[in-house]
Amino acid sequence: MSKTNFEFLDALGQIARDKGISVETLLDALANALVAAYKRRPDAAEEAVVTIDPDSGEIRVYGQELDEDGNVVREWDDTPDDFGRIAAQTAKQVILQRIREVERDLKYEEYAGREGDIVTGIVQQTDNRYTLLDLGKVEALLPQAEQVSYERYEHGARLKAYIVEVRKTTKGPQIVVSRSHPGLIKRLFELEVPEISSGAVEIKAAAREPGHRTKIAVWSNDPNVDPVGACVGARGSRVRMVTNELRGERVDVVPYSDDPVELIQAALAPARVREVRLDDDSGTATVIVSDYQLSLAIGKEGQNARLAARLTGWRIDIKSETQLAEEESGYAGEEWAEGEWVQNEAGEMVWQPAEGGSAVSASEWAEGADGAEDGSAVEAASELVAEDVDVAEVEAVEDAVAVEEAAEASAAEAPAEEGPA
After folding, report:
1. Which end of the chain is more exposed for a tag (fewer CB within 10 A), N or C?
2. Crossing angle of helices 23-39/83-112, nearest 10°?
3. Looking at the structure, do residues 248 and 267 belong to the same domain, yes or no?
4. 285 neighbors 264 (Cβ within 8 angstroms)
């Protein structure tokens, strides 16, 4: 082996060790490049192969003649006299190019199978379109669509994110991460809760409104392990770590159940549910709660009900006991007077309309009710006429009413006539 060949192989081995690339890979890349360089010569054979001895570093070019089927029928040594100079010029360029390609492939392979995993990066650049995270060897892209609306990412801050996609490009792998994906919650709990990592506790479902609130349903595969207690931790220590990483986002942990009724009741926590009625055909669950629990069950702007519906997979219709009673009694859809009974200065109970105006006493309220009843009677009589009731029958009824009224009037006047002369 010549000194030049020894130095070449030694340098090649050093590069391979530094970059984590095998010597065989570099030699193959160099051989292919030398074949291309050889074929640019005017007297080159149409087909050729270059061999590089890994022990001695000797480079030889063999011309080939092929038949119609592509089989080699003749081969000869066609190494040019100045091929060493050509090899030296080509080697540096080819090796550097191959190193870049291999590094890109290694980076892609490192992250290709990690969709759904969690990574920690340092914020490098932020604008209106995306944020770049430095993961060490590569950079990750956090698009605006995957960001939490109110979060602000300061330069140099450490951030955990969820890998949603790994793309292979000519410039290397492009890793797309998310801060709003529900999978981020699951991975954060895996980091904080050993029972989840070991498989003793399992997150069955998760529903999230990024930056505001999340609900997860957990199940224990070990009867001796409380799934909710394991996720919450002593004095809430474990769930607090997740909340801190999410920058204050509230996390509710509820027990999972195969019974839809029990799951819906748990999903609507902290509200207490009185009854759940399921309609399998429409996929709707009618939930009955106490009147004072109605706003708590629905949540701010309907948030609690929305998350419970996503968590359980049921459409949830929440009603108070009063609303249910009105519907079942047939008064649903009726218009009711708005106001309240209050005590006036004289100590009497009066009805104060909500829209304002003078108060109505109890006696006036009763007279109004009687008037409504009289109006109903008139309406009923009109319906009788509309139905073509016999006129003679109506007249007979009217005569009977007139006779009865005359008798009442006579009875009222009788005591006055019996007085002293």
Report:
1. C
2. 130
3. no
4. yes
Report pLDDT digits (tens) over 89-103: 777 777 778 778 877
291 lies in which domain range?
258-334
For residue 115, the one-letter residue type is E
Q: What is the pLDDT averaged over residues 108-112? A: 84
Question: How would DSSP label each residue in 10-69?
Answer: HHHHHHHHHHT--HHHHHHHHHHHHHHHHHTSTT--SEEEEEE-TTT--EEEEEEEE-TT
Query: Per DSSP, what are the bridge partners of residue 208?
Result: 214
CATH code (residue 119): 2.40.50.140
Distance CA 67, CA 45 (A): 14
Report DSSP state, residue 249.
Answer: -
137/98 Cα distance (integer angstroms): 18
User: Residues with Cβ < 8 Å from 216, sequence gap 6 or more?
Assistant: 185, 186, 189, 203, 205, 206, 207, 231, 251, 252, 253, 254, 311
Q: Are strands 250-255 and 213-220 parallel, antiparallel or unpaired?
A: parallel
Which domain CATH number covers 238? 3.30.300.20
The one-letter amino acid code at 306 reads R
Tens digits of residue pLDDT in 212-230: 999 999 999 999 999 999 9
Is residue 295 in some structural domain? yes
Please state whether the predicted TM-score (pTM) of the whole model is above 0.85: no
DSSP state of 80: -
Residues 21 and 99 grouped into a single domain: yes
> Is 314 within 8 Å of 273 (Cβ atoms)?
no
The tokens for 68 are 């119609």
Q: Are residues 163 and 75 in the same domain?
A: no
* DSSP 8-state symbol, 146: G
